[in-house]
Amino acid sequence: MKLLKDVFVTIVLVAIFICLVENGLRLAGVNYDASFYRLERDFGYVLRPGAEGWNVKEHENYVRISSQGLRDREHTLQRPANVIRIAVVGDSFAEAREVDQDATYWSVMERELNRSLPVGSPRIEVINFGVDGYGLAQEYMVIKRRIWQYDPQIIILSGTLHSFVLRGSRKFGTNSAEGPVPFYVRRNGELELDDISVNEQAAFVSPSHRSDVIADLTNESRILSLVNALRRKLSTEANELERRIDGPASAVAGVSRNYENGVLRGPVDPDYSEAWAVAEELIRHSQAEASRHHAEFWLFLLDMAPQVDPDAGKRMAMMRDLGIDDLFLADKSLADFATQEDIMHATLAQKMLAFAEENHVVLHGFKSRRNKGHWNEMGHRVAGRLIAQELFDCSAVIRRYHAPSAVPQQQSCNAGARQ
């Protein structure tokens, strides 16, 4: 009897302690990164429908995922009458957990286009399919399998050199290693999943509904969120250690200690060249998929923070570190490829740098993280306006609703422009 009493008292004391810690963390305003993802066989992971919670990396912001598994508002599957739908496929810059949804570049783009089109034109509706950590392999499959039920007329494939090139290669890939993240290789002139991806997908077991319930409970509890944050930190550090031991650092030794920024050099060595070749093939496949559905395809290359630092001295230091005299070499390589393939495209970095220099602002980072990481609200605003202007000027779908005087000359548009 005494034993049962002692157990009961212990349970009560532990419960009281947990409640005190939980409420103390809430009163102190302490938040931890929520869990927004669910493991998935073909994509590795996807956004979990209905998930919500805090994002605290880089900038604290409360995030909600729609019931359709999008970092976006709810959308009907059937495209409404008199609406032009644009599907945005991308990475963390599109998911954009660091800023409010209304401040994201695709929200800015939607507002700018609707403001620019004449009265009586169709309404622009943008649907965001971006997912943090996605590379071109996952983005290609999003285009192939997820977007067509919404009947979009314009497809935007957006990303940085980091997500387009590095995340497409298992050698450089920096995905979170959550689930069987796919990687493609070229074999006999064809693009195929590599053997590891094939084996991981074959062995994959879908998570139960219970795992979603646990994730939701974790997001609601500060204590469980703390435990989950520690778990992810340990996992990330273990992956980073493994990459340093077996990863690509040696492949670019003597070039740059930071292989992620090394992609700014373009396809200049065998390791990077193969990653570039796979990326280009995935872009070709993405365009072909859009063409098969009679949709207009656009490639938008976003900037990387070192390219748009308003401090010219820091840009020069980065160029010295990389052994180049132009931070836009890789952008030009991708633009040349898009031109050769007749792909509508635009690169944003040079125009964003011009804005940053003219206005003495940084477009990446928050508070003490100056010009690092993802776009701040100003970065999203500038990018959204640039993309909207490009579409307004050159999209065949949108241009048909212009007044004749608003339509620029054909030569002002990039490859693939149609009257």
Helix vs. strand class: alpha/beta
- CATH superfamily assignment? SGNH hydrolase
Regions with little confidence, pLDDT below 50 for 5+ residues: 248-257
End-to-end distance? 87 Å
* Biggest sheet features: 5 strands, parallel
Percent helix among the residues? 40-55%
Count all strands and give the number: 11
Q: Which sequence of strands runs across the widest sheet?
A: 6-5-7-10-11
CATH topology: Rossmann fold
Name the CATH class: Alpha Beta
Radius of gyration: 23 Å
Instruction: List the domain count as a whole number.
Output: 1
CATH architecture: 3-Layer(aba) Sandwich
What value does the average pLDDT take? Answer: 85
What letter string, H or E per element, gives the SSE order? HEEEEEHHEHEHEEHHHHHEHHEHHH
Strand residue content: 5-15%
> What shape does the CA trace take?
globular
* Tally of separate helices: 15
What's the short story on this structure?
This protein is an alpha/beta fold. The protein has helices at 2-27, 92-95, 105-116, 136-145, 161-164, 195-203, 209-220, 222-246, 259-262, 270-292, 312-322, 329-340, 349-359, 377-394, 396-399, and strands spanning 37-40, 44-47, 52-55, 61-64, 83-89, 123-128, 154-159, 184-187, 190-193, 296-301, 344-347. It has one domain (31-399): SGNH hydrolase (Rossmann fold, 3-Layer(aba) Sandwich).
Can you walk me through this structure?
The termini are far apart. It is built from 15 helices and eleven strands. With 419 residues, the chain is of the alpha/beta class. The protein has helices at residues 2-27, 92-95, 105-116, 136-145, 161-164, 195-203, 209-220, 222-246, 259-262, 270-292, 312-322, 329-340, 349-359, 377-394, 396-399; strands spanning 37-40, 44-47, 52-55, 61-64, 83-89, 123-128, 154-159, 184-187, 190-193, 296-301, 344-347. It has one domain: SGNH hydrolase (Rossmann fold). The protein is globular. Helix 3 packs across helix 14 and helix 4 (136-145) runs parallel beside helix 10 (270-292). It is 44% helix and 13% strand. The protein has a five-stranded parallel β-sheet, sandwiched between helices.
